[in-house]
Amino acid sequence: MNFFKIIISTADRHTCHEQLRDSLKLYRCVAVSFGLLCILQVALNISLRLPLSESYLFTSHRSHNGWLYFSHSFYYISQIKKTWPDSRNDCLQRGADLVIINSREEQVLLVQNLMWIGLSKRDGIWEWVDGTRLAQSFWCSGEPNNHKRGNEDCVQIHSCHPDHGWNDEECRHSSLWICEKNMAL
Predict the structure, then answer these.
(1) Does residue 155 carry a pLDDT above 50?
(2) What is the mean pLDDT of the segment spanning 137-149?
(3) Do the record's keywords include Disulfide bond (predicted)?
(4) How far apart are CA 128 and CA 133, in angstroms?
(5) Is the pLDDT of residue 120 over 50?
(6) Is residue 110 pLDDT above 80, yes or no?
(7) Of 24-33, 104-113, 167-176, where does the model show the most confidence?
(8) Among candidates 154, 153, 94, 89, which has minimal Cα distance to 118?
(9) What CATH homologous superfamily does 60-182 map to?
(10) Which ranges of the chain would DSSP assign to H, the alpha helix?
(11) Other CB atoms closer than 10 Å to residue 78's CB: what's the count?
């Protein structure tokens, strides 16, 4: 009789181990499926949100903490004034940089008040904050004019004309600014 109990208890243990192993496989399968569903949800959210966001006006859509979205970039427009170097440092602390204007559409979109953009003169050459040289420009009429004793080495955007709105200014002058954070696709 004891021999019979040992055989039954050994068989029961073997069955329990198999059931435990099977349930662990099931939990792993559920966890992997859930993870894949989450990744799919994120991909759908991104792919559906980007085209929809571009179809609305830039100024009507504020995102988290004052960032605005347009054409694969987020923009932050400051509410206080700082010098060009201090403005750039603020952008860098936000994980962005001063805006680089790549198109006429972006230029027209951003023309508002006097605000620093990411363009400055280094060794007599106009360069963007990423080190690229100025290729396409939107200067106001008569600009750049280096008006103040040759020290106007930074650029502000303003509304002298919707298609043209750049003014060279002294970097130590205080102004609002625009940060840009590109979306990684």
Answers:
(1) yes
(2) 81
(3) yes
(4) 6
(5) yes
(6) no
(7) 167-176
(8) 154
(9) Mannose-Binding Protein A, subunit A (3.10.100.10)
(10) 2-54, 84-93, 104-110
(11) 17
β-bridge pairing 125-128 and 166-169: unpaired
Q: Which residues contact 113 (CB under 8 A, 6 or more apart)?
A: 158, 159, 176
Is 70 exceeded by the pLDDT of residue 54?
Answer: no
Burial annotation 13-50 (CB, 10 A radius, 16+ → b, else e):
eeeeeeeeeeeeeeeeeeeeeeeeeeeeeeeeeeeeee
Looking at residues 80-85, what average pLDDT do you find? 96
CB 159 within 8 A of CB 113: yes
Q: Whose structure tokens read 């929809």?
A: 52
Mean pLDDT score, 84-109: 90
Alpha-carbon distances of 156 from 56, 94, 104, 110, rounded to whole Å: 26, 20, 16, 11
Pairing of β 73-77 and β 67-70: antiparallel
Query: CB count, 10 Å around CB of 119?
Result: 24
Assigned token pair, 105: 């559409």
**Strand 154-157 to 73-77 pairing:** unpaired
- Looking at the DSSP bridge assignments, the partners of residue 116 are 156, 177
Note the pLDDT tens digit of each residue in 171-185. Answer: 999 999 999 998 765
